[in-house]
Structures are given as C-alpha cells and as structure tokens.
From TrEMBL, chain A:
PROSITE patterns: ABC_TRANSPORTER_1 (PS00211), ABC_TRANSPORTER_2 (PS50893). Its main location: membrane. This is Amino-acid transport system ATP-binding protein. It is a peripheral membrane protein. It comes from Oceanobacillus polygoni.
Automatic annotation (TrEMBL), chain B:
Belongs to the binding-protein-dependent transport system permease family. Pfam families: BPD_transp_1 (PF00528). The keyword Transport applies. It is a multi-pass membrane protein. This is Amino-acid transport system permease protein. GO terms for cellular component: ATP-binding cassette (ABC) transporter complex. It comes from Oceanobacillus polygoni.
Amino acid sequence: MIKISNIKKSFNKSVVLKDISFHVTDGEVVAIIGPSGSGKSTLLRCINFLEKPDSGKIEIGDVTVDTTKTTKSEIQKLRMQTSMVFQHYNLFKNKTALENVTHSLRVTKKLNKKQADEIGRNLLDQVGLLSKADSYPISLSGGQQQRVGIARALAVGPNAILFDEPTSSLDPEWVGEVLRVISGIANKEKTMIIVTHEMKFAREVADKVIFMDDGLIVEQGTPEAVFDNPQNERTKKFLRNYQKHSSVEMDKENGKFALL
Amino acid sequence: MNFDFGYMIEIIPELIKYVPVTLYITIVSMLFAIIIGIFLALILVNRVPILLQLSKVYISFFRGTPPLVQLLIIYFGLPQLVPALNSITAATAAIIAFSLNVSAYLAEIFRAGLDSVDKGQAEAALTVGMTYPQALRGIILPQAARNAIPATGNTFLGLLKNSSLAFTIGVTELLAQGKLLATATLNFFEAYLAVALIYWGLTIIYSWLQTWYENHISKPYVRET
C-alpha cells in the first residue's frame, strides 16, 4: 500500500508539484498520464527521494516519511520499499546483464554468488533474456536493455515498482516486447506505478489511471472512466490531441501492440 | 667526433642499479597522490561546502607553482617551522612533495572521470537499495577509473621524469648517479645520454603495460560481434 499526501515540489521558482495526494492499494497497477512537463516524472522520483519533495508525507508498506524532516536512514528505508525502471534504462555499464540483476543482491542483501545468480538467472528467464546473461549492456538492443532493467528492479523484491516512461526512448520495434514483459508482471499482482505515453497500454494494463496537468492531479479513475468518459475539460483536450497524433500510427501498429 | 659509445654501454648497468630508487619515489608518490586525488575529486563533484573552497586553493597552488620550488619548501622550509621535521630524509621529502603536486593534477582528471559516468547509473543504484558509497565502489569508480586512465598515465610519466628533481636535495637516484659518473670521467654526453635512454626505456615499458591494461578492462565496452 502506497499513500502519498500533499506532496509539493519546486525547482528554484517554478512549482512542479502543487499538492499531490493519491493512494495505491497492494497489487494495484496505476498509470500516470498527462502532457510533457506536467510533473509526472518528478512525482515518481519524489516517491523514492531521487528528488526531495519540499513537503508532504509518503507512506509505503510500513515506512512513513514526513518529507520536511527526514534522516538518511529513513530515506534508505523508504528506497528499499520500491525499485525503479528508467526511461534511459540506466544499466550499470561495467556489469553483465546477470550482474546488473544480481549486484544489488550481493551488496545490499549480502547473498553469496550462487544464491544471487540463481535469482538473477530466474529473472532473466522471466524477461526472456537468459541467453544474454553474460553480455554487457553495450551489446544489447534498447528493448533488451530495458528488459534487463525490469529484471534488476524485480530482483530486490520491492513492495512496488516505479516505471518512468519505460518505452519512451525505445525504437518502435522494441516497444511491444517491453510492454509485454511489463503486463506480464502486472498480471502477477505486483504493485506498480507507471508513467507512460502509451495510452493503449495504460488502458489495458492499469487498474487506475491518473491524469496530471500543470502539477496537479486533474482526474483519476478506472481506465474506462478516464479514457471513455473523461469529466474534466483538460483531460478531454489531452486525449483528443493524443488521438489526432496517433490515429495513423495505431492502425499500422495494431498487430505489434497486441499485448496479451 | 669524440663520443665513447663503449663507455655509454658500460655504465648502463651501473646506472640501472639506481632505477629502483627512481621507481620507489615515483610509485610511492603516485599511490599517495591517487588516494589524495580521489578524495579531492569527490569533494569537487559533490561540492562539499568549505572543503570545496579549500580544495580549490590547494589545487590552484600545487598546479601554479614549480615542483622544484615545492620540493625545496618541503625539504628546507618546513623543518624551520616544525622542528620535528628536521630528521626528515630527502627521499621522504621528495615523496611528500611529489604526492601533493601530482594529487592536484589527478584531482581534476578524476573529477572529469567521475563526471563522465552518467548520473542515471548512480540513481539506478540508489533505487535498488544501494547507498552512495556502495554505488561509488561497485558502479561509478570502476567506470570513472577507466575513463581517467589515459590522462593518469600521462601524469605518471611526468612524475617518473620529474622524480629526477629529487637529486637537487641529495637523493641518489638515476640522474644523481649519472651526474656522478659524468663528472668523474668527464664523459658528460655519454653519461647523460645513458640516463636519458634509461628514462626513455622505462616510459616505453610503462606505455606497454598501460595499453595492455586498457585493453584488458575495456571488454565490457566493446560490442560483441
């Protein structure tokens, strides 16, 4: 269970998050959508303190943090509750695919090599990359790197996984395979928060959709409610724009995006 | 032409006996310089208040004054201020001076090396539960080191040659011995050329080692074919 209360965040003078509150129940998949610059990624990065919120409260599992007064150990505990998948993969370039998955287990959970490798191989198998276990990131395609990134995020057994635009920097040909892996995990009752521009994917995989604009949560609800029957004028405009831009693409890509 | 080739060859074994002294001063200074350099670079990258300003002054001073002057200050000047340093040997003074001098150069090289590792990898390490020191050790430093090796190698070669300055405060190393032989027999050209050839040989061997090492650690960054 994740409960975010009254999170605010400014960079210098520009206010990026204006009082954000929402909650995610265990096993729920939440998709955050909205225009660029609406604060989606910043919100996600506040949840694990990659950005320090100016104020507000974050509750994940049994860890509660008042963001105005935090200690290093509290931040560390909070970070242990989640893991993250990045837009640019951010794989450790000096480690093989397998080591990318196992390194945190060796360092933070002090597992021995054999135990860590077993977990690592299992996860690489889950994302379909067991054969690439000994390859370094430079030899992997974008889609493969992102799947290793997902395996790495799964390895630490987090309460929830945060996805920060996991397909935004992928070539179109790799988007499908990554989305398939993510929805495979979603089906296993894993709690996830996904910031995404893939509306079709959000609709299929999410239990709840949050639409953000200008640092605020404008609308939230089931995918059907938000996509088919949006209440707010800004949501309607955003979805209209999105459809205009992608209607041609979607027909062409239909086959590739067939997810499940 | 008055050049005694035979003499030059003859004294090379005599000079090589002093290579260990040169290498000792160079390598020990380099090790200390690397340790100090890493700390300085971490202060620069993380912009630690107060320490940042102190580091900048330190770096500016040791890069902005001649190594020979620094050596003289430490060997002759410091004991004047701190009498306990009176018993300092010339070799120790040389090692201190070269460590401080080279660390200032390495600090900037290491800073650039650390900056060359994209921030995302450090963030990723934090999100899977590592602390910043753990991320440094396992992820960032190994990559920063690789990027810093060519420039660090240049600095090392500079140090190897600058270690000859130690002879001015009475350390009998390679150049000092060469001077001794030169003045004893008045075969200046032969003696100093022999010294030069030995330095040259040392730098060539070092360059081989570095190339081998660079290839060795570059494996993760070369695409499989």
